[in-house]
């Protein structure tokens, strides 16, 4: 039964991607609704991921978040052969020329996949992979047979390639979340934006064999330019519409309350990196079954 569910979900995911491709190809423009800018465009705690060190070196302070204390995991590992993720056709699904015309990031499921069932919601998990929290998150999701979307930071992928690969192997989607999570992202020069996106894209491909098709700006630092640059690299800009601000550790109950208030079609944001995520994990442990009990279905983007 669970296998059939998983299969159905994979088919659903493929459908969503294909629908999205046709949507982008057809409209090529701003088909997205108007949501106010992300509330936390500025000082997010996961700024810790951006220590300003350069991408060139893997050692040292490329990221000073908790992940930075775990050097060398998965080093000298031969990258897997490049392949497509289960639900995402390899290459060319989202024509860059069309994406360039996009003016706003996607912030709800209906923007991204109109064919998704009405009871679908999407959980997005940002700022990993992290050696402590990502495995716990993966175990929890597996326990509840939930597929999610992980927004990966390039320097963390470089340090923990096996974790990134495990995410993909478990059937989750991956999203480019820049190389070093610089904020405010929208203040970067286009050249730096490009470098951040391209470097992360390569790290994700090297570790997982998957070409990410989604991009989430660090801290929700969107601007028209950010969206354009993402589009130039074939990436769909993905925002969120439910933010429990778990990064600020407001308490398990507050995180849960915020997530439980979500409506069908929501894209929910939480984190598996950038600090102690025990509250997030605890909250999800109750939130996931309750949302499922309500008849909502989790889909990967
Ligand atoms: Zn982030």
Automatic annotation (TrEMBL):
User: What one GO molecular function would you report for this record?
Assistant: hydrolase activity, acting on carbon-nitrogen (but not peptide) bonds
* Range of residues in the leader sequence: none
- The UniProt regions of compositional bias labelled Low complexity, in chain numbering, are 40-68
Which InterPro entries does the record associate with it? Glyco_hydro/deAcase_b/a-brl, NODB_dom, Polysacc_deacetylase_ArnD
Q: Residues annotated as region Disordered?
A: 26-99
- Outline the extent of the NodB homology domain: 119-299
Q: What is this protein called?
A: NodB homology domain-containing protein
Q: Upper lineage ranks? A: Bacteria, Bacillati, Actinomycetota, Actinomycetes, Streptosporangiales
């Amino acid at each position: 039964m669970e296998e059939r569910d998983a299969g159905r979900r994979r088919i659903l995911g493929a459908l969503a991607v294909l629908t999205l491709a046709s949507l982008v190809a057809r409209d090529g423009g701003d088909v997205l609704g108007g949501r106010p800018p992300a509330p936390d465009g500025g000082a997010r705690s996961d700024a810790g991921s951006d220590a300003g060190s350069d991408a060139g070196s893997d050692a040292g302070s490329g990221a000073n978040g908790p992940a930075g204390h775990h050097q060398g995991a998965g080093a000298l590992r031969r990258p897997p052969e490049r392949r497509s993720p289960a639900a995402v056709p390899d290459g060319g699904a989202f024509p860059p020329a069309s994406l360039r015309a996009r003016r706003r990031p996607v912030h709800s499921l209906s923007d991204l996949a109109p064919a998704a069932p009405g009871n679908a919601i999407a959980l997005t998990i940002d700022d990993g992979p992290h050696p402590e929290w990502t495995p716990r998150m993966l175990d929890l999701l597996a326990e509840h047979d939930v597929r999610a979307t992980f927004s990966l930071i390039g320097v963390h992928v470089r340090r923990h390639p096996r974790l990134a690969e495990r995410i993909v192997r478990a059937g989750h989607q991956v999203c480019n979340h820049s190389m070093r999570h610089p904020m405010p992202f929208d203040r970067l020069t286009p050249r730096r934006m490009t470098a951040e996106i391209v470097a992360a894209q390569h790290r994700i491909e090297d570790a997982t064999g998957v070409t990410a098709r989604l991009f989430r700006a660090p801290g929700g630092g969107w601007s028209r330019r950010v969206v354009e640059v993402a589009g130039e690299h074939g990436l769909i800009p993905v925002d969120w519409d439910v933010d429990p601000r778990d990064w600020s550790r407001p308490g398990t109950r507050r995180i849960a309350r915020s997530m439980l208030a979500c409506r069908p079609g929501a894209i929910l944001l939480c984190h598996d990196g950038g600090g102690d995520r025990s509250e997030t994990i605890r909250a999800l442990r109750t939130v996931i079954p309750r949302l499922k009990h309500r008849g909502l279905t989790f889909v990967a983007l």
